């Protein structure tokens, strides 16, 4: 039976063309701090309630996240600086306006940025095509104004999107999406115009869902080490991507921060690690492997 093609062709990792990272690194390792702003009194548009625990305001949940920008970000930053980690921030663009000190710290370190929406309490569900098109222009212009950088990718706000999202991202000039959690290498995404790929992000190596479902620091460290060890072995044959996703209000808690230090110390002690950003991974893959990957996947489909 022949199924109509959609966004991604199936290509088993066991027989793809070899992927080689710069300097023959085995693992492209990137860190994604989710630097977010949640509204105290958000507008509920009927698709997903930003604060479902209670009626607004939910002071407990709002203030828990506010801890990240007031305290946790700065504690996390100290550890990242100790290992000279260049991050690709999953950024609510409103942070640049609401927290100028955070914006200055990120710009000073020449970090890269992917959009995580404007606020983490405003989702793309239900957006019309025109409204979503305007959303990308707002993101692009805001990032450029505050950082001087061009927007290249997105993790949807609270990982939300529409059926039009990939097409409109590519139309706006973005080149990668990180909502697709389906691979250990970049993968082309079919779009109407332009080019778009998925860059591996992680819900597994993500402090927020882990710690909020009763895992703790020792578990996070072991999960990250085990993930790295396996990808490092596999990466000898063909390069892999490893992402660690952080939330300052979670990893930046006083009792947790030393676990981040332990994780980074372990990974960065290895040779053959390309410590990079999602922007750099996407640009490298586009330049060296995109056409090859599309042709290989097409051949598999017959």
CATH class: Alpha Beta
Mean model confidence by pLDDT: 95
The CATH topology is given as TIM Barrel
The secondary-structure element order is: EHEHHEHEHEEEHHEHHEHH
Percent strand equals 5-15%
Oligomer: single chain
Instruction: Work out the helicity level.
Output: 40-55%
**What is the C-alpha radius of gyration, as a whole number of Å?**
19 Å
Whole-number count of domains: 1
Basic shape: globular
Model regions low in confidence, pLDDT < 50 over at least 5 residues: none
**Amino-to-carboxy terminus distance:** 13 Å
What is the count of DSSP helices, taking H or I runs of 4+ residues?
11
Structure summary, number of beta strands:
9
CATH superfamily name? Glycoside hydrolase/deacetylase
Walk me through this protein's architecture:
With 302 residues, this protein is α/β, with parallel strands linked by helices. The chain has a single domain (16-301), classed as Alpha-Beta Barrel (TIM Barrel). Helices cover 41% and strands 13% of the residues. It is built from 11 helices and 9 strands. Strands 1, 2, 3, 8 and 9 form a 5-stranded parallel β-sheet that branches. The protein has a 4-stranded mixed β-sheet with strand order 4-5-7-6. Strand 1, helix 1 and strand 2 (88-91) form a beta-alpha-beta unit. The chain is globular and about 55 Å long. 42% of the residues are buried. The mean pLDDT is 95.
């Amino acid at each position: 039976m022949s199924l109509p093609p959609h966004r991604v062709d199936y290509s088993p990792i066991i027989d793809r063309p070899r992927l080689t990272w710069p300097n023959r690194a085995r693992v492209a390792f990137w860190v994604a701090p989710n630097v977010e702003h949640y509204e105290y009194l958000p507008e509920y548009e009927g698709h997903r309630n930003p604060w479902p625990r209670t009626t607004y305001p939910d002071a407990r949940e709002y203030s828990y996240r506010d801890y990240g920008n007031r305290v946790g970000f700065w504690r996390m930053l100290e550890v990242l600086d100790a290992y000279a980690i260049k991050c690709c921030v999953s950024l609510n663009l409103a942070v640049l306006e609401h927290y100028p000190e955070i914006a200055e710290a990120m710009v000073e370190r020449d970090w890269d940025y992917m959009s995580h929406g404007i606020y983490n309490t405003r989702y793309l569900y239900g957006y019309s095509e025109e409204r979503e098109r305007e959303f990308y222009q707002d993101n692009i212009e805001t990032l450029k104004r505050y950082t001087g950088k061009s927007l290249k990718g997105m993790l949807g706000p609270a990982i939300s999107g529409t059926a039009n999202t990939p097409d409109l991202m590519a139309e706006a000039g973005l080149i990668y999406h990180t909502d697709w959690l389906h691979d250990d290498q970049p993968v082309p995404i079919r779009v109407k115009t332009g080019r778009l790929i998925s860059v591996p992000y992680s819900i597994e190596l993500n402090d927020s869902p882990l710690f909020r479902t009763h895992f703790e620091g020792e578990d996070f460290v072991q999960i990250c080490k085990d993930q790295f060890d396996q990808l490092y072995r596999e990466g000898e044959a063909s390069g892999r991507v490893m992402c660690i996703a952080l939330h300052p209000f979670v990893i930046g808690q006083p009792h947790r921060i030393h676990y981040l230090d332990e994780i980074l110390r372990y990974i960065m002690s290895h040779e053959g690690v390309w410590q990079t950003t999602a922007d750099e991974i996407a640009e490298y893959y586009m330049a060296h492997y995109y056409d090859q990957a599309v042709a290989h996947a097409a051949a598999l489909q017959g």
